[in-house]
Amino acid sequence: MGDRPHHFVFVLYPEVSLSSLTGTMEVLEQAMLEQELSGGGSLSYRLSLVSSDGVRTTSYFGVTVETLPFSALDGVEIDTIFVSGGLGFRAAMADPALIGWLSTRGPEASRICASGTGSFILAQAGLLDRHSIVTHWLMNEEFAEAFPGVELIRDRIYVQDGKLWTSAGMGSAVDFALALLEADAGRDFAFRVAKRALIMLRRSGEQPQISSVLQAQAQEGDRFDRLHEWIYANLKSDLSIERLAAHVGMSQRNFSRVYHTKMGMTPGNKVTQIRLEAAREALLHSDMRVSTIAYECGFTDEQQMRRAFLRWNGQSPSDIRAGAGGKG
Known about the structure:
328 residues, Rossmann fold, Arc Repressor Mutant, subunit A, 2 domains, 7-stranded mixed β-sheet, 15 helices, globular
């Protein structure tokens, strides 16, 4: 990363959401700890929090954060500008000092990031024109109407377009931060940090904002919630209809009927869907052999997994991995 620390500048404003800020800072902190404990390296970050007033900024839930004024960074090199979303984003869009600073310093930074409705603020500053971005799915229509010159990618958790990085915000904060870390320090290091931070699954940007497990939970309340969580945690186990029915305390026949009625698919198809989601993430973000991924995700062998991928989305495991630049 060079001789000097990589300078991360977080832009705050009243009623900002702290989820992306704290999620990103936690990943960077864990990265520095991982490097220290593993014997050193060249990774180093400097963090600055700035706002128009340069005083305590109050987040949506009343937590106050000490910030610097924009003028404190005059003449200071900035590597990454990060704008979080929050309910105060509309007022921030109308703040001439904030928008003017972003318009001036944004083009100078080597990376510009927005989380959730932070994309509105960057667009207002003219930094997103003719670029591809993502925002929270609830804000898609408002964003598309307000900024027709920006290519909005719907239902992705984060998108990179050159030096512009945008995420859906909220629960995608850690995934987004790990993607930024991977860009700075490599895939292997990012995964060591994810493991240190007890991340169950690091999602790629191509993942939908609402996963199949979450959709299933929304469809059926809590009746099958624990079943889906158990399936995800036991991909290598026997996940036959008999085993699933026994796990929820239902007869096989009744379980199959009720599940299909409530979920709109058979239990066997849901197991395959969850296994494929886990396998896709491993293909995109690990160097494990394809045969090993197949085993870890509960497929009989590599060929069974390949057939499942082709049947569900028309791509083979090698196609998916080639798209990520990974190893075969």
